[in-house]
Specification:
Structural class: alpha+beta
Domain Glycosyl transferase family: 9-160
CATH topology of the largest domain: Beta-lactamase
Strand content: 5-15%
Largest sheet: 5 strands, antiparallel
Radius of gyration: 29 Å
Pathway: Cell wall biogenesis; peptidoglycan biosynthesis
CATH architecture of the largest domain: 3-Layer(aba) Sandwich
Number of domains: 2
EC number: 2.4.99.28
Helix content: 40-55%
Protein name: peptidoglycan glycosyltransferase
Low-confidence stretches: 428-440, 483-487
Shape: elongated
CATH class of the largest domain: Alpha Beta
Domain Penicillin-binding protein transpeptidase: 264-453
CATH superfamily of the largest domain: DD-peptidase/beta-lactamase superfamily
Number of strands: 11
Mean pLDDT: 86
Strand order of the largest sheet: 2-1-11-10-9
């Protein structure tokens, strides 16, 4: 494997720079360890590693804290590796697992990502650069700090010349070679979803329910919308085929590589305030209890329960209004009235039973503020619960892998689900200026959290439930952001 797939120059640079006695020591180089221990003891903290390649593999396989105790554990794991594996097998483990920045792991991935070529065809300069990268990734990544990467490469080249591994002429020519990166983007489809699945599975091969074509279109859509989002804002999207509950698309952030937008945070499974997207559930459950019917008159008037005094989004009140119009216009006071009649604790328990837990502050009990975003929820759970409006009142459990069983639990009657879905579909009709002409086939609901921190839109069509969230992952407000303006256009685009 090594002879055919990895350039010998890289192996020479790696071993002679990182661990010159790799082929001879028992996993631990006693001289390097003694030197590192002396430096650590005299400084009172761990400042020098003294790690062999075997010890680095041990750390990759069994991460440990950078303490004296952690170093002892690393030494023990390295000895165990040497007892059970050959040197060649240990080296292959390093080549496959060494970190090279971001999501890059292994020399093959790094070579293609940074240089656009196979690791079997590396120049002296390229081999030296890749050999040193895993040492201090945060400071040497060539795509971020090419000058630092060049200096580190030159240090490796000088070491190779000093040890007589490479000739002075070869090293001199290699030093003149600039740090060049391939102008290409490595494919990283569904990176946050993949990270989640890797954390859940111990298998070497993971098959998921994602539709690669749809996933690619969703990620392109996210990139196209990135420029329209406010600074530090992100977005999340999930698409579920409600006929079989397979998750077909999952976009956890607007851009994995954009740290200013917290691109590494998966907002599909983050807990956020859902605003008004819970309202369809309380109306559907109240229909089943006989508390209301679609034409029931509700009161959109000022009300106060203890210290709780809710208001509407437009700060106005509309007096008596029928239930259907109250849902279409997403009025707050009628929803609070219905929740009070149904019972907040009962409502929260019903949602939790079908897989939509509402997250409350420690010690807090469900109360009337639930229906207006006074509790947290996850986009993935919300999308799963909304399948009840397409599955005759039964909410399905998301299927992430083809072998996952199809499970569902009753949330409301088939009739109540049908009525609420019809009302949500009619919500598309009174849009001003025909702003979203193609959204009409959807039954959809928006939500905006207090302080404009979150904007939601959940849509249901003949096949899919589409869930959208936009906002700032750090929870700071985005003035003027609300579900209709921020999230609904994405639902419409994602059909």
């Amino acid at each position: 494997m090594l002879d055919n797939l990895i350039e010998a120059r890289y192996l020479e640079a790696l071993i002679n720079y990182e661990d010159r006695w790799f082929w001879k020591h028992p996993g631990v180089n006693p001289f390097s360890v003694a030197r590192a221990a002396w430096q650590d003891l005299t400084s009172g903290r761990v400042i020098s590693g003294g790690s062999t390649l075997t010890m680095q593999v041990a750390r990759l396989l069994d991460p440990h804290p950078k303490t004296f105790g952690g170093k002892i554990l690393q030494l023990w794991r390295a000895l165990q590796l040497e007892w059970h594996l050959s040197k060649r097998e240990i080296l292959i483990l390093y080549l496959n697992r060494a970190p090279f920045g971001g999501t890059l792991q292994g020399i093959g991935t790094a070579s293609w990502a940074y240089l656009g070529k196979s690791p079997a065809n590396l120049s002296y300069s390229e081999a030296a650069m890749l050999a040193v990268l895993p040492q201090v990734l945060s400071r040497l990544r060539p795509d971020r700090w090419p000058e630092r990467a060049e200096a580190a490469r030159n240090k490796v080249l000088e070491r190779m010349a000093a040890q007589g591994v490479w000739s002075r002429e070869q090293v001199k020519e290699s030093r003149e070679e600039p740090i060049w990166l391939a102008p290409r983007q490595m494919p990283q489809l569904a990176p946050l979803f993949s990270r989640m699945m890797l954390g859940k599975s111990k298998s070497d091969k993971i098959v998921t329910t994602l539709d690669a074509g749809l996933q690619r279109r969703l990620e392109e859509l996210a990139q196209n919308w990135k420029g329209r989002l406010p600074p530090r804002s992100s977005l999340a999207m999930i698409v579920v085929n409600h006929t079989d509950m397979r998750v077909r698309g999952w976009v956890g952030s607007v851009d994995l590589n954009d740290d200013s937008r917290f691109g590494h945070v998966d907002m599909v499974n983050a807990i956020r305030s859902p605003g008004s997207v819970l309202k369809p559930f309380v109306y559907g459950l109240a229909l089943d209890e006989g508390l209301i019917h679609p034409a029931s008159l509700l009161q959109d008037v000022p009300r106060r329960t203890g210290d709780y005094r809710p208001g509407n989004f437009d700060s106005g009140f509309h007096g008596p209004i029928n239930m259907s119009e109250a849902l279409v216009r997403s009025l707050n006071l009628p929803a609070v009235q219905v929740l009070e009649a149904y019972g907040p604790k009962r409502f929260a328990a019903k949602l939790r039973n079908v897989g939509l837990p509402l997250y409350l502050p420690n010690g807090a009990a469900p109360n009337l503020s639930l229906i207006l975003g006074g509790a947290g929820a996850k986009l993935e759970d919300m999308a799963a619960a909304y399948t009840a409006f397409a599955r005759h009142g039964k909410a399905g459990k998301l299927r992430l892998q083809p072998d996952d069983p199809l499970l569902e639990r009753p949330l409301m009657s088939s009739g109540a689900a049908w009525i609420i879905r019809r009302i949500m579909a009619d919500e598309a009709q009174p849009l001003p200026d025909s702003a979203l002409p193609r959204v009409a086939p959807l039954a959809w609901k928006t939500g905006t959290s207090y302080g404009y921190r979150d904007a939601w839109a959940i849509g249901v069509n003949a096949r899919y439930v589409i869930g959208i969230w936009t906002g700032r992952p750090d929870g700071t407000p985005v003035v003027g952001q609300f579900g209709f303006a921020s999230a609904v256009p994405l639902v419409e685009s994602g059909q």
